[in-house]
Design goal:
Shape: globular
Distance between the termini: 48 Å
Number of domains: 3
CATH architecture of the largest domain: 2-Layer Sandwich
Number of strands: 18
CATH topology of the largest domain: Endonuclease, Chain A
CATH class of the largest domain: Alpha Beta
Mean pLDDT: 87
Radius of gyration: 24 Å
Length: 484
C-alpha cells in the first residue's frame, strides 16, 4: 500500500493526463460518429477537448441521450401499434379540402407520420385560459368513463387546483383517470401539484423520471406535449400549459396569451394513442384500446381533415422538421408563422427564405415581450437572415404570446406544442396537428393578422440601430442557441 501511495504521489499528474486523454478521446469520437448535425458534432467535440474531464461529463448528461432513439422508440411504440392498426389511410381529395399544391405535402406527411389523415373532425379555437380552461374543466366534469391528461407545466396555483378538484370529482364518480406531467415542468411550482393529486388518489406519473429523481441519461429530454382526452371521443391540444398566468381575471392586463383547440372526431383517437404510449413508456401500464378510445365518431360541422404529427428524440426526431420544410416548399401565396421562440436551424431558414425569394409573402410574428430573455437575444441576432430574404417580421404589442401557429395559402395549418427552435425540433417530445381546411386556416390567419395589426415591424435599419454592445451580446448568445 505504501508503494502504491508513493507511485500515486509521484505519477498522479501523468495518471490524470492519461485519464483525460482516454475519456475525452472516447467522448469526442462518440460525438463525431453519432451526431448527424455537423454543427452539433463540432460543438460537442470542442467542449470535450477544451475541458477534457468536465466536458465528457457534460456530454454524458446533456448530449449522449440524443442517440438512444432506437431503444426509446422500441419501448414507446409497442402500444402505439395497436392503436394505429385500424387507422386506415383512405383516399382523400386534397384539392377539394385545401388546394391542388397540397397533394405532394399530403404524400410527404404520410411518410413522416405514423397516423393517417382523417376527415370528419371538428376543431374549435380556444383563446388563452379564459376560453380553454372552462371548456377543459367542463369536459372533465362531463366525463363518464375515462380522462387522460398530459402536460408540460401543471402549476400548483388557483387554476391547477381547479383542475385537481375537477379530476377529484370525476374520480369519485368512478371515472378512470391518468395524469402525466413532465418531470421538469412539474418543478415550476413549489410545492408541486403532485401533492394534491396524491392526496385525492388521482393516478399520475412523471415523464422521464424515477423515484430517485430524474434519469441522468435523459436529463435533457422533456415531454412538451399537451393532451386532454375525455371518454375517448373529445380532445384538447395546442400549446397551453396549466397555469393562472393565462387567465385575465387573475393576471389582469398582464395575462399571457396562447391558443388551444377543442377537437372532436376520429383524430381524437390519435391524440389518445400518443398519450397511451407515453403512459406505457413511463409506467409500463398498457391502457386497453376498447376502454380508452371511442369506436364511433360524431362531430358537428364544419368538418376538417386532420392528423397528429408526433416528434421527439427517437426515430421520429425529424417529423415536424420535415413537414415544415415540405409546407414551405409548396407555398404559393402566403406563409404566416407565429412562434414565441423563433430560432429555426439553417435548413428551415433556407426553406423559409427560398419561399420568400420565390415571391411568397412570409409573415413571421414573434413576441414583443418574451419570457425567456436569452432566447429573445438569440432570436434578435438571427432576424436579419430572414429580413434580407424579403420576409416580414413583426413584434407583437402587449403581454407575452405563447401561441404556435402556422398557415399556408389560407388552406393548410399546423397547430400544437412545437416551437421553431432547436429544443422543440430536436430534444422535446412534441405533438402537433396538420389540418387541411380553408375555413380553419382563415380563422387562424385572422388571429395572426390581428396580432400583426397591433405589432411593430422589425427592419434591417431597426436592427442596425441596436447599440453594438447589445448586438455583440445577442450574437454571443445566438452561438449557444442549440442549447437554450
Amino acid at each position: 500500500m505504501t508503494n502504491l501511495h508513493l507511485l500515486l504521489d509521484e505519477y498522479w499528474p501523468h495518471i490524470v493526463l492519461a485519464l483525460s486523454i482516454g475519456i475525452g478521446g472516447t467522448a469526442a469520437v462518440h460525438a463525431a460518429m453519432t451526431k448527424s448535425d455537423v454543427r452539433a458534432a463540432i460543438a460537442w467535440v470542442g467542449v470535450i477537448i477544451m475541458s477534457p474531464l468536465l466536458g465528457p461529463l457534460i456530454y454524458l448528461i446533456a448530449g449522449i441521450n440524443r442517440i438512444r432513439h432506437d431503444q426509446i422508440s422500441d419501448q414507446r411504440n409497442r402500444s402505439l401499434r395497436q392503436y394505429i392498426s385500424s387507422d386506415a389511410r383512405a383516399p382523400i381529395d386534397i384539392a377539394q379540402l385545401a388546394a391542388p399544391q397540397f397533394a405532394s405535402l399530403h404524400t410527404l406527411s404520410n411518410r413522416v407520420s405514423r397516423f393517417g389523415l382523417r376527415p370528419g373532425n371538428n376543431i374549435e379555437i380556444l383563446r388563452s385560459g379564459d376560453e380553454a380552461y372552462p371548456a377543459m374543466l367542463a369536459a372533465i366534469d362531463g366525463a363518464k368513463r375515462t380522462i387522460a391528461l398530459e402536460t408540460y407545466i401543471f402549476d400548483n396555483d388557483s387554476q391547477g387546483r381547479r383542475f385537481v378538484e375537477a379530476l377529484a370529482r370525476a374520480h369519485k364518480r368512478g371515472v378512470e383517470i391518468r395524469v402525466l406531467i413532465d418531470a421538469i415542468g412539474v418543478r415550476y411550482s413549489n410545492p408541486a401539484i403532485t401533492w394534491s393529486l396524491r392526496r385525492n388518489d388521482i393516478p399520475y406519473a412523471l415523464f422521464m423520471t424515477n423515484p430517485m429523481g430524474i434519469r441522468m441519461p435523459y436529463a435533457n429530454l422533456r415531454s412538451h406535449r399537451k393532451i386532454l382526452v375525455v371518454d375517448g371521443c373529445l380532445g384538447f391540444t395546442g400549446g397551453m400549459n396549466i397555469r393562472e398566468g393565462f387567465v385575465s381575471a387573475i393576471a389582469g392586463h398582464k395575462a399571457n396569451s396562447d391558443t388551444h383547440f377543442r377537437v372532436e372526431g376520429p383524430v381524437v383517437a390519435q391524440l389518445m394513442a400518443v398519450f397511451a404510449h407515453d403512459w406505457e413508456f413511463t409506467t409500463k401500464e398498457v391502457l386497453p384500446f376498447e376502454r380508452w378510445i371511442a369506436h364511433e365518431w360524431t362531430a358537428p360541422t364544419p368538418h376538417v381533415a386532420a392528423r397528429c404529427i408526433h416528434s421527439g428524440p427517437d426515430r421520429y426526431v425529424a417529423s415536424t422538421h420535415n413537414l415544415l420544410q415540405g409546407a414551405f416548399a409548396v407555398a404559393q401565396h402566403h406563409i404566416r408563422i407565429q412562434s414565441p421562440y423563433f430560432l429555426p436551424d439553417q435548413v428551415l431558414l433556407g426553406a423559409i427564405n427560398t419561399a420568400a425569394r420565390r415571391g411568397v409573402l412570409v409573415d413571421i410574428v414573434i413576441p414583443g415581450k418574451n419570457n425567456l430573455r436569452l432566447v429573445n437575444y438569440a432570436m434578435t441576432a438571427q432576424l436579419d437572415q430572414v429580413l434580407r430574404a424579403g420576409c416580414r417580421v413583426w413584434r407583437t404589442a402587449g403581454p407575452f404570446n405563447h401561441s404556435k401557429l402556422t398557415t399556408i395559402d389560407g388552406a393548410w395549418s399546423m397547430i400544437g406544442s412545437s416551437n421553431l427552435d432547436p429544443r422543440s425540433l430536436r430534444l422535446n417530445f412534441e405533438l402537433d396537428m396538420e389540418i387541411y381546411s380553408r375555413h380553419l386556416a382563415r380563422r387562424i390567419e385572422d388571429l395572426i393578422d390581428l396580432e400583426i395589426a397591433h405589432a411593430e415591424a422589425v427592419t434591417l435599419e431597426s436592427l442596425a440601430a441596436i447599440p453594438f454592445r447589445k448586438r455583440l451580446r445577442n450574437r454571443i448568445i445566438w452561438l449557444a442557441s442549440p442549447y437554450l
